[in-house]
């Protein structure tokens, strides 16, 4: 009974999110297919996440390596992608490379180098996004804007890492106009780098927008929104480690 109830809620939430994404696309004059939804499943157990998959979520986002490794064997992963969206320590790289379809949270040349080495050892290429600390927050991970191009140039030299775009988590803003400024800046930087047509760098993915601000992000050019709470409901902390 409980599962059934949750199933309905996730399905209903998904339908509501879908409608909101479509509306934001219409308002922005963009095509729906240009925006991809990532269902952020952190803290939710495999049974619950499988209900979301059955409702049509086909990319999952998780922020902890340990949680991915524990949960993934219990998930119905056929035609479903797993993205790492949380900070990655270099000592955990070896256990996650090959286990996820994309690492969205690459925030240094150092960690990119380790991803490259581990990918080489497995004979694969790992898709990554560079995380940008767009709000210059001291307590947040991400490359500073001033260093971004240099970091991207260095990472682009690595043969088994493929830069696919940028990701950010902007500062918490009370007003929608304020968060939009950060998204707008991200889009500027994204287009700027895309226009440089750097070797081995494709700017296809601009991952920004979460439950509280994804419509703003879509209006400012986001191609990938990462939605947890609006899809699964409130998380009960502490986060599973
Ligand atoms: C948790 C998380 C999200 C989802 O946040 P919600 O507010 O629950 O939608 C998105 N991106 C990252 C990096 C996260 O850690």
Describe the structure.
This protein has 241 residues and is α/β, with parallel strands linked by helices. The chain has helices at 2-28, 46-55, 65-71, 93-96, 109-122, 145-156, 176-196, 214-219, 229-232, and strands spanning 36-40, 59-62, 81-84, 102-106, 126-132, 161-168, 201-207, 224-227. The protein has an eight-stranded parallel beta sheet with strand order 7-6-5-4-3-2-1-8. Strand 3, helix 4 and strand 4 form a beta-alpha-beta unit. It is globular and about 50 Å long. The model has no long low-confidence stretch (mean pLDDT 95). The protein binds pyridoxal-5'-phosphate. Pyridoxal-5'-phosphate binds next to strand 8 and helix 9.
Give the helix/strand layout.
Elements: H1 2-28, E1 36-40, H2 46-55, E2 59-62, H3 65-71, E3 81-84, H4 93-96, E4 102-106, H5 109-122, E5 126-132, H6 145-156, E6 161-168, H7 176-196, E7 201-207, H8 214-219, E8 224-227, H9 229-232
Parallel strand pairs: 1-2, 1-8, 2-3, 3-4, 4-5, 5-6, 6-7
Helix pairs in contact: 1-2
The chain binds pyridoxal-5'-phosphate (PLP).
